[in-house]
Amino acid sequence: MATTHPQAAATAAATTLTSVTEVDLETRLAAVDASMTVRLEAALLRLDIDAAAPETTIPFEDADTEALSAYVARTQPPPTPTYRTPVAALLERAAHRIDRDGWCRDATRDAAGARCLYGGIAIEAATASEEDAALKLLLETIQRHDPSTRTIPSHNASLRSGANAVQLLTKAAQLAHARSQ
After folding, report:
1. Is the dihedral of CA 96, 160, 71, 31 positive or negative?
2. CA distance 87 to 179
3. Could you tell me the superkingdom of the organism this chain comes from (predicted)?
4. How far apart are CA 164 and CA 84, in angstroms?
5. Is residue 156 within 8 Å of 141, Cβ to Cβ?
6. Could you report the per-residue pLDDT of 72-124, keeping only the tens digit for each?
């Protein structure tokens, strides 16, 4: 039976543990990559097969990641509402709408159907008072992060991506929920 020095055994164990961790991360990344590849290939296949709505069919060579992501989001069932209060639910629906249909900077709605912050709330609101309450809460949420902002459209124009718009609407929905609005 061979004996080893305790320090050498600990170093060997640490080296083995480190290499196993790196392999596990690599394996997980490869699995996620394979999963995403399968989902994107399925989405491309649906793009070619979906003849029920001609406006959703695009040439294969024109299909980029953003278009595929939007198409996959549109084909998913609507998410289960998280909030029961009207303003919070409205803000959440607006966030889902922008996430699903896309976000635009300089128009309420663009030709592709993408919407700005105001446009997302306006299309989802059942009443004018509900829309007003949601817009006030959204402006308050924006001003908590950037007190110099005076209007929602000016802040919408300064956003970098649709993810930022969705994040703002989600934060406003959380605030509305906390206030039972």
Report:
1. negative
2. 10
3. Bacteria
4. 24
5. no
6. 666 677 777 788 899 999 999 999 999 888 999 889 998 888 999 999 999 99
Q: Give the pair of three-digit tokens for residue 174.
A: 């959380």
| Residue owning tokens 């020095």 | 5
pLDDT for res 173: 95
Q: Give the torsion through C-alpha atoms of 161, 150, 131, 120, to 10 deg.
A: -10
Residue 115 three-state SS: strand
Closest to 138 measured CA to CA, from 104, 167, 163: 167
| CB 122 within 8 Å of CB 113 | no
In angstroms, what CA-CA distances link 152 with 84, 99, 105, 121?
A: 25, 18, 11, 11
Nearest CA among 178, 180, 173, 149 for reference residue 95? 173
Lowest mean pLDDT across 77-81, 92-96, 156-160, 167-171: 77-81
- 73-87 pLDDT per residue, tens: 666 777 777 888 999
Query: Alpha helices, DSSP H only, in the chain?
Result: 6-49, 65-75, 86-101, 117-124, 128-145, 152-158, 162-178
The pair of three-digit structure tokens given for residue 168, joined into one six-digit string = 């703002």
